[in-house]
Amino acid sequence: MTDRNTQDGAMAEGRPGGAGHLPEDGIRTFPFPADLSVSGVGMQIGAMGTGRTWHADAPLERVHRIDFHVVMLFHAGPVRHMIDFAEYEVSAGDILWIRPGQVHRFAGTYDYRGIVLTMQPGFLPRATVEATGLYRYDQPPLLRPDADQLAALEHSLAQLEREYVDTTTLPLSLHTSVLRHSLTAFLLRLAHLAASSAKAAGEQSDTAFTRFREAVEKGFATNHSVSAYADALGYSRRTLVRAVRAATGETPKGFIDKRVILEAKRLLAHTDIPIGRIGVAVGFPDSANFSKFFHQHTDATPAGFRAELR
Hints:
The protein is an alpha+beta fold. Helices cover 46% and strands 12% of the residues. Strand 4 and strand 5 form a beta hairpin. Helix 5 crosses helix 7, helix 8 packs across helix 11 and helix 9 crosses helix 10.
């Protein structure tokens, strides 16, 4: 039986549920497999390895998308894992943090050794979600804790796993509350590591870039104009260019185009939507212009890119 608080939280955050949910953008997302959880709670924790899956129709070794949080702490490696079409090489002691909506692909599940934590959106209260940065897509998915940080994270995960499998000493409501507290403690440590990693890598940015990034995330499907973003945000084009270049090393136009390409790749990889309609969905009413834009940025046609992933 699924915990009612989990269901209410998921609805409060506006996250979809149900097997093989198909939202308006056409991407089939795989929801958190609550039926596989101990007592049906909104999280799972256990060893990585063969036999693990999110859903019967989501083969792990193909590009797929999930609508829940995944944290993998590796005990062996190296392993190459794709997240949003970028390859990450992961070794023992490294952590991958994959957020809802990101596409990814396993590189042979038999190579994966360690602990995997999954969590349903809405399982934690909103204040905890904000404190732990659960939806900070700007932060790097690959984290490399030092020895002390790793020891603390492993201890926290071990405690969480003990609470997860202990279903006899507390009623379900208290069991779920204890899990939420233990999970929060782990995620606060993980969030601190992620923020520190981003700062060390120079990925923290000034206010101008932060506002620009948020505006692009909301408007990239219809607005590809640097000048339009600058005007809307109240910056000069020159100020915006400096801020984006300092934060990312690229131009504002390059940043916008990169986000458009990512969304196009997601749609091509996950749906059977006609290519012309995908072009419209990312701001190209003319399919020929979309194909030309896609080829310029990927050296592949939309059809060719889709065929490689099928």
